[in-house]
Amino acid sequence: MRYQMFDVEVTDPIMDLALSPQDSGAAILIRRKGVPIGFWLQQSNGVSRIDAESLKRSIVSEAGDRIIAAAIQEEIAPPASIQPLPLLTIAICTKDRYQGVERLLKSLHGQECWLPEGSAGLEILVVDNAPSDERTKEVADKWDPERRTELRYLREHPPGLNFGRNRALREARGEFLAFLDDDVIVDRYWLAGFVAAWSENPAAAAFTGQVLPMEMETEAQILFEERGGFRRGFERIRFGAVLPGNNAYPGGAGIFGAGANMAFRTEVVRRLGGFDEALDTGAPVPGGGDLDMFYRIIRGGFTLVYDPRFMVFHQHRRELAGLFNQYKRSWGLGFMCFLSKCVKTDPERRADLLRLIIWWLFDQLKRGVIHSRKKLRGRHYFPPSIFVGELWYGAIGFFGGYERSQRQIEAIRKRFS
Question: Under CATH, which architecture does the 88-319 domain have?
Fold first, then answer.
């Protein structure tokens, strides 16, 4: 089961998309002048190609309004003034995934070309979190010291992603600090997207961007993307203190973006006390740390901007077992540990957060029932075990999960003090 990836520029002639006999479908990214404006999955239904006329109709259906809006904006409004970018630190927090680090570093080559004239440049931090060998250091040591961008290798002994993030926060020299997961590569316009987002929102404290699949080679990867993946759409959104029509805001912090691709004003995150090390701890609580920071940014009175031009490609889990574990632990346990912390520490929002938790529980139950019925009727369905697992681990997270993690983290701190 494989979906071939296509990257289509609409200002170029639209051509047929050829499929191989092994392809079950296509994953199609649409750009206009390099800017991503649409993405969809399309089953092959036995055909060997997607003809140009059919593709044009799909482009109009999926992204026609955005194409027209972009063309009008181009005609009537001057582009935002691009100012020199202050120093940007790029942090790659990793554990025993040297191949992913090497792949990501290769994708960062040449990003400097998007820096406006007079910019302070880039620096890269590779934060090796409780490594079991030297292979990540060996990858970092291969970085050409003559490059315009400096790379520093740091070893952080306490295990846990947020320990690594906080080490990067302490070491960063940049006014802005971007975090990239070791299972992504950056789009060729990634830095241009960040510069554009910052130029249009110079006072924003945080930025997130689009996260699309790197490959669609297995059933697990296709299933994850069919359920929405990490995508957050192709509209630029400026998030402030309130979101009309959303009483739980900012409790559903997943709307802001994903921790695989996020950037902050370094001083703001330091002022907020850094990342909560009882979230995103690794195996015990493998999630929630990014959501917690997004929540605290908004509750702190700052602005967060989502911009799809700031885009990366993510290596989704290839095996179903790994995908189900992600749903159970990262999206069930991690999410509920984050929410239970918010309930405990933010009494002003407590009632709305509890309503969000109740809604989430019933929504998971409803989805499980819907897809169980689809399975019985022989229709396309998501495995009901996904929803059951999320519910079960969500309950574990809500009933004392965060407090248990705090105790574990305190023991880790003592061990490494």
Answer: Alpha-Beta Complex (3.90)
pLDDT of residue 308: 98
Are the C-beta atoms of residues 171 and 179 closer than 8 Å to each other?
no
Element at 389 (helix H, strand E): helix 384-398
Q: Are 189 and 309 in contact (CB under 8 A)?
A: yes
Residue 237: is it exposed, middle or buried by C-beta count within 10 angstroms (0-12/13-18/19+)?
A: middle
Q: What pLDDT shows up at residue 307?
A: 98
Cα 171 to Cα 168: distance, rounded to the nearest angstrom: 5
- pLDDT digit string, tens, across residues 169-200: 999 999 999 999 999 999 999 999 999 999 99
Half-sphere exposure of residue 57, counting CA atoms within 13 Å on the CB side?
4
Other beta carbons within 10 angstroms of residue 78's beta carbon come to 6
The rounded distance, in Å, linking the Cα atoms of 103 and 145 is: 18
- Give the 3-state secondary structure of residue 88: strand
Short-list 224, 236, 233, CA closest to 254: 233
